[in-house]
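It is worth pausing here to work through a concrete case rather than discussing structure prediction in the abstract. The textbook approach is simple: state the sequence, then state the predicted structure, then interpret. We follow exactly that order.
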Amino acid sequence: MKSLLPILVFTLSINCLLAQRVAGPAEKKLTDSICDCMTKVDFTKVTTKQQATAVFSDCFAQHPALLVDVATERHTTMADDEGMNKIGNDIGESLMKQNCAAAMKLGLLMADDKKNSAEATSETNGTFNRIDLKGFNYIVVTDKTNSEKSFLWLREFPGSDKFMNGSVQLKGKKIKVTWREMEVYLPAAKGYYKVKEITAIDFL
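Step two, the predicted structure:
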């Protein structure tokens, strides 16, 4: 998951200064594929930064083999966060350069931080149970009513390092999960659904 974080948090910038860089064949193929994926999106249903980011991430994630080819072309690996972050940004620039209209629309939404700058967070106290892998990692907590609550581990957060090297030893630990509600696009369900994204975890 860690190697995908630069892609998932990548924000297209419509104001970036585009360097005169020539994309390689693998990168060009991936960029074209991502633009084609974005072009098929129904933009009447994409109105927030979270939704735009989810669409971009989904289109990126649909081409893992091409992404590996680009990493090889750029003499890096999927495990190199810095290298993958650079690839993500370069592809974003390439989408702008080739005037991908869908990418432009997503870029406008993703660059608009105002409506998301004051997102409210909530807290849930409970006992750590397990981590479920469903495309992304979900941390599952049993709350005081003995109900299981699932929280999306989308990006790095305070306390995430404690879960990086396995979680068996953490089972039964009391934790406080700070989270915010966000809406994401689920391709399998062909719709948007609200999930609880983790912003911090504290051990009690």
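Step three, interpretation. The beta strands are 122-134, 136-143, 148-153, 174-186, 191-203. The mean pLDDT is 78.
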